[in-house]
Amino acid sequence: VDYIYWAGGGVGHLSASNYELLDSFTIGQIDIIAQTAARQIGGAFGSISLFEDIYANKNYSDVNISISDDGDPSVQNVGGFIGYIAAKGSLTQGFASGNISINTNSSITNEIGGFDGCSNDANFEEVYAVNSVIGKKNVGGLIGQLSGTITNSYARGNVIGNSQVGGLVGQMTHSDGSDENPAQYSSITNSYSVGLVELRDEERQPVDLGGLVGASSSELSTVTNSFWDIEASVMETSAGGTPKTSEELKTITTFTNAGWDFDQTWMILSENYTYPRLAFNTIEVESWTDLHNMRN
Length: 296
Fold this sequence. Notes:
This protein is mainly β.
């Protein structure tokens, strides 16, 4: 194609007021060869844009996304579940798997995330991504560019890019304020990431690569009680968060000492052997097979 905008495995673009998205799942493969541009591409939703409340609960996507070029296309806002969200609302208890690979020569390959490419004032709670993500700028294991909040969430998988690259979030940003609505600064709470964080083009100078967060545009953004695996990431620094060894991240006291809820929200199936998972899934969903087994 020459130009593609709003492409999703389930819905390309959704705009409505005060609605709910409940118990959906999407499986498949999205392959795009673009000449000029590919924007707002998601495993389930390409884009959700409105400025009223949304509530999304227990939505799943197992979609591989591959974008290559037939020219010099700009690629922006690509996510394993949703490409771009500009909505004040909450996405809870969801997951994305399926690998995301952006293989273009364009210098514009921005906002690529394992769950969401780019958010604007959205709140993510109890979501996770288990996939590998390859982009260039603002690349994150969970969210490429975050303007909003992340709570009780995680990402596991390799993240590869050139600038603003993080195991959980590529870049934390904030929304502009007004007289009626003050600026909203991003936050990450009780979350973690595991996986290699790596420079994509070895001839380039790396800019803002971090174990948990690649970069933050404001000192008012916060990262609280959140960790990254310093061994798996091979990354000693981050724009937020605390480094932990693989052994520490498989030990329950690492998290309970930081105030994480292991009564209702989190669980570790086999201490010293497995990382924490979210308790809303009795098994960790990494594929359609897992989801099918869980629902039956």
